[in-house]
Design brief:
The complex is a heterotrimer of chains A (501), B (148) and C (321). Chain A has 501 residues and is mainly alpha-helical. Chain A has helices spanning 2-14, 17-35, 41-55, 59-84, 93-104, 108-140, 146-164, 168-182, 208-227, 245-250, 252-267, 273-288, 299-315, 317-323, 329-340, 347-352, 354-375, 379-385, 390-409, 412-430, 436-459, 470-489; strands at residues 185-186, 193-194. Chain A has one domain (2-489). In chain A, helix 6 packs across helix 11 (252-267) and helix 7 runs antiparallel to helix 21. The longest helix of chain A has 33 residues, at 108-140. Chain C is of the alpha/beta class and 321 residues long. In chain C, 39% of the residues lie in helices and 20% in strands. Chain C has helices at 9-17, 36-50, 69-78, 91-98, 134-143, 159-170, 187-195, 210-214, 261-276, 278-286, 296-317; strands at 26-29, 59-62, 85-90, 110-126, 149-152, 180-183, 201-205, 218-223, 248-256, 290-295. In chain C, strands 1, 2, 3, 4, 5, 6, 7, 8, 9 and 10 form a ten-stranded mixed β-sheet that branches. The chains are: A mainly alpha (501), B mainly alpha (148), C alpha/beta (321).
């Protein structure tokens, strides 16, 4: 019953005309951002953050807008996967495998509708899961002391690193780059500057928004320049959209199973939506067996990854809201927003700011229905947007990034830093070094160090304190397994490098 | 050839050692906890150096590097963005935005007329969006000197 | 929290542009929108205007940076004689000044014009803690300093850390560097750690724990005020228990050091008017503040005393040389 009264509170906030407008606007922008190749949920949200603050939105409104963009981008990502065979974002990668063949078989409309419905089911179930699970998990936080938090952060790095790259050393290196950058600025405990080189601009540390926009948006621009925006215009024409009821019904169990698995994958710190869609596609493929015809354009192959990645997107909000540990790149960006708004995610968030939490959850529920409407009957609108040529799009993205950061900090130094992060991101991605662990490192670095230091204060310098509770030991074990396991599994399940026709 | 990873591994080791070295110079205060200000940076530097070593010993296959002309293109883009960062405040929004958008647009699809059109269109369109639509009044349209 | 230092100075300036007029009073909040200093500026600014003490709406400028140090040095170096400028301040301001955290700036470079409310300091334990009174805890620490670890919302050496140390000093315990303290991200985290049993006690402000008092999860061993706090009459003061310590997180203002005595007195009178207003009484209740009004010369000499005391304690624990 408590959930109902909380939900009522949430809807009383979410159903105000202003908040509702923001949710619809966010869904619309998000779907566009998701659909545009090269722009995914993380860079979409990243570009919009500075603008949110310049709007002067309060905490709830800012969160509603940005999570609507987040959910919208998860929906929109499939559009370019299906029509262009270019994933609009990484989680939509698996949707290419059956979505594009289906479209080439003359059924682009069916592929879009089935995947749209699957996205809705996945996202809706995950939001309900978030609603039930998050308050329970919030109580768990009383069991987390400094040693446990330190192990939890480690787990986030190792699982994220384990999946984000094909090379553990590179993933670990990326985490170190982020952590190393986080150390720049005044030391929390002593107030002494570290790694600032006497530069006053660096006293407050590197602003993570600058890093995020640089690594995601500016890096993308460099990649477009390198490829001259190749392969972005040829696509499949979409004529009419009808709803294949029978086929949707036939995928009902696929959708349910995929939602559940995706949700669980999303909850794991650091795993996120890409893992969700990958696992669910693999699961459904093995359930269907050879006869299933996965890879040739079957409905289940379209439904599974979309239900999976949208459910994972919802699941990733659980650890972000309850423990302050993001479950994916985009939730890392959202965590940055919360911190900037002076909202400390964690157990007390549910008690202290029910308006924020439940307003957010109610908005997510509303956003889902808005997105279903936008992505099934109105999908043709977004298909047209795909025809914005990259030679207008990418300069536009660059300028929005610059003005966004400039309006936030008013400093040319931060703009230079952003460009530097863009160049760094380009080199790293060329070498298959993932950039998301860098963001995670910048976000969590200080908290990780602080918890280590607190643990040592409490134990009087005894390092075994880090392994003194069942929870921390479990987390350490999971962290080691999460980091090592991909080394062995990789032999069996190869991460699809690039989707080629 | 597996050069990319080797070079980057080496760079990583050098940077990581430099990081550790600069960590030894961190000022500590009198009130210190058992871990102190230096330990965590040391750990990060050591792990990074170790990762660099692994990249040096076990490099992955090289990615497809851009051609010399491609690298030149990227350098020009980088230069344009750096210039933009410096120019935005003193020269106002419209001018630098036109130039830099046009450069980027030209580099993605080399068509001069289209690039110039994109530059002008983005500069004017975004200015109206930011200045009047979103109320970002801390960007000036033109150089301050001109406005007096 | 380095990462929470959000450079909103320019943003604040943008938002404030609409209300700018040449003669308007300006209130600098040396932090981002949303925090305590921001609240001080916005509330006092609004009430000043509502009462007619100022002619135009007070313009709020958020100037975050260096924990208030940026605003302080700006005021001292660029606005030293500006009589239309007020700056939000609190115990954090004087603590940092006493600990030389503002890069050589000292408290006498500005004039502290008054405080009109305070968040009382508290020492809290979990409901299942063996400590029933402050004496129980102090005895335990004297017997074994490692038996109690404190969690608080400020960094080591900060205001929350100094509260238990002042009590222990008052109890005649001098080995204060042996007392364990961890600084976490705010009072809510500190109380969570304490309820979870990772630390034995929490040191913080009354407003941070009201929800936990009501839910019965914590026991307040002492409140660090002169008298018991209205609304919380069952909580004993440290004074009653034999430790003469008063530590409150006051909310107030400082003004530039170069203004005349007459201008200083004018501000003191205006602040007194705000303190007496019904609007401020309501704002205090809504934000968990207890009455604490000291203005003008009174306040300045009280602040001087606090700064001296903080400096001495900080030297003993090694925060400053």
């Amino acid at each position: 019953m408590e959930i109902l009264s909380n939900l009522a509170l949430g809807f009383s906030i979410a159903l105000t005309p202003f908040t509702l407008t923001l949710a619809v606007l966010g869904c619309f922008l998000g779907t566009i951002i998701g659909a545009l190749p090269g722009l995914g949920p993380s860079n979409g949200v990243a570009i919009l953050i500075p603008l949110t603050f310049t709007f002067g939105l309060d905490a709830t409104s800012a969160l509603v807008l940005l999570t609507s963009v987040y959910y919208g981008a998860m929906y929109g990502g499939r559009i370019s996967s299906i029509l262009l065979n270019i994933p609009g974002d990484e989680p939509a990668l698996m949707t290419c495998l059956d979505g594009y063949p289906m479209a080439r078989n003359g059924r682009p409309g069916d592929a879009l509708v089935i995947s749209g419905v699957a996205s809705f089911v996945g996202a809706l179930l995950a939001t309900i899961g978030l609603m039930i699970l998050a308050p329970l998990l919030a109580r768990v936080a009383y069991l987390f002391g400094p040693a446990e938090y330190f192990a939890l952060y480690l787990l986030a790095f190792s699982t994220l690193g384990g999946i984000a790259s094909n090379n553990q050393a590179k993933a670990a290196l990326a985490s170190c780059i982020g952590l190393g950058i986080a150390m720049i600025g005044l030391d929390n405990s002593t107030g002494m500057p570290r790694f600032t080189g006497g530069n006053l601009h660096l006293m407050d540390g590197v602003d993570f928004l600058v890093a995020i926009v640089g690594l995601f948006a500016i890096t993308e621009v460099f990649f477009f320049i390198e490829s001259h925006g190749k392969g972005s215009a040829i696509g499949i024409k979409l004529d009419k959209v009808t709803i294949p009821w029978r086929e949707i019904w036939s995928t009902r169990w696929t959708m349910l199973r995929s939602s559940l698995l995706g949700f669980v994958a999303g909850i794991l710190p650091g795993a996120g939506a890409s893992l969700g869609s990958f696992l669910t596609y693999m699961m459904e493929k093995s359930i269907a067996g050879e006869k299933g015809g996965f890879g040739t354009g079957v409905a289940k192959g379209v439904a599974a990854p979309e239900a999976g990645n949208n459910a994972a997107a919802g699941g990733a909000l659980v650890p972000m809201l309850t423990l302050g540990v993001p479950g994916s790149g985009t939730t890392a960006v959202l965590l940055a927003v919360l911190m900037t708004l002076n909202i400390t995610p964690g157990p007390t968030l549910f008690a202290d700011r029910p308006d924020v939490v439940w307003g957010l959850i109610a908005s997510l529920l509303i956003a889902n229905f808005v997105l279903l409407a936008m992505n099934v009957p109105m999908v043709k609108v977004f298909v047209r947007i795909l025809s914005v040529p990259p030679w207008i799009l990418m300069p536009g993205v660059t300028m929005v990034s610059f003005v966004g950061i400039y309006s936030l900090t008013g400093s040319y130094f931060d703009l230079l830093l952003m460009v530097a992060f863009g160049a760094l991101g380009y080199s790293l991605r060329k070498l298959d070094i993932p950039t998301v662990p860098i963001i995670l490192g910048i976000l969590l670095g200080n908290a990780m160090e602080d918890n280590l230091r607190r643990a040592m204060v409490l134990s009087g310098g005894d390092w075994t304190y880090l392994f003194s509770s069942a929870i921390s030991n479990g987390l350490w074990l999971a962290a080691v397994l999460g980091f090592v396991a991909p080394l062995f599994l990789r032999r069996f399940i190869k991460k699809p490098q690039a989707v080629t026709d | 050839m597996r050069v990319g990873d080797r070079i980057f591994g080496l760079v990583t080791i050098v940077v990581a050692l430099g990081y550790i070295l600069s960590a030894t110079n961190i000022q500590t205060s009198f009130m210190s906890d058992p871990v102190g200000s230096k330990t965590f940076p040391y750990i990060i530097g050591a792990v990074a150096a170790f990762c660099g070593l692994i990249m040096l010993i076990l490099p992955d296959a090289d990615p497809e590097w851009p051609s010399l002309a491609g690298i030149l293109n990227l350098m020009i883009a980088l230069g344009a963005l750096v210039g933009y960062a410096y120019a935005l405040k003193p020269l106002g929004f419209i001018g630098p935005t036109t130039v830099v958008s046009a450069i980027l647009s030209y580099q993605i699809a080399p068509n001069l007329a289209r690039a110039i059109l994109t530059g002008v269109g983005l500069a004017v369109g975004l200015f109206f969006l930011f200045y009047y639509g979103l109320g970002l009044t801390n960007i000036d349209p033109f150089p301050k000197a001109l406005l007096g | 929290m380095t990462y929470s230092v959000f450079k909103a100075a320019s943003l604040g300036a943008v938002l404030a542009l609409g209300a700018t007029s040449a003669m308007a009073t300006e209130c600098i909040a040396p932090a981002n929108p949303g925090g305590g200093w921001d609240f001080t500026c916005r509330q006092i600014g609004k009430i000043l205007y509502d009462l007619g003490e100022v002619d135009a709406p007070v313009q709020i400028t958020n100037m975050a940076g260096a924990g208030g140090g940026l605003a302080f040095s700006t005021v001292v170096n660029e606005r030293d004689t500006d009589a239309d400028l007020i700056v939000a301040a609190s115990s954090a301001t004087t603590t940092r000044l006493a600990q030389n955290a503002f890069g050589g700036a000292t408290a006498d470079q500005v004039r502290f014009v008054g405080a009109i409310g305070a968040d009382p300091g508290v020492i809290v334990v979990a409901a299942d803690s063996p400590f029933q009174s402050l004496n129980d805890m102090v005895d335990s620490i004297i017997a074994d300093p490692t038996s109690v670890a404190f969690a608080g919302g400020s960094a080591a050496g900060g205001f929350d850390h100094l509260k238990p140390l002042q009590i222990l000093k008052a109890a005649g315990f001098d080995d204060i560097t042996a007392v364990r303290y961890i600084g976490v991200d705010g009072g809510a985290d500190a109380i969570t750690q304490t309820i979870g049993g990772f630390t034995q006690a929490m040191t913080g402000d009354m407003s941070e724990i009201v929800g936990f008092i009501n839910s019965g999860e914590v026991r307040v061993l002492a409140v660090l005020t002169e008298e018991r706090v209205p609304g919380f009459e069952s909580i004993p003061t440290a004074r009653e228990q034999g430790y003469d310590v008063v530590a409150v997180n006051w909310r107030g203002l400082y003004v530039p050091g170069g203004i005349s005595d007459a201008e200083f007195d004018t501000w003191a009178a205006k602040l007194q008017a705000v303190a007496d207003s019904a609007e401020w009484q309501e704002a205090m209740v809504a934000n968990g503040l207890a009455p604490f009004t000291k203005v003008g010369g009174d306040f300045q000499s009280w602040v001087d005393g606090v700064v001296a005391q903080t400096a001495e304690l900080s030297r003993e624990i090694g925060v400053i040389q």
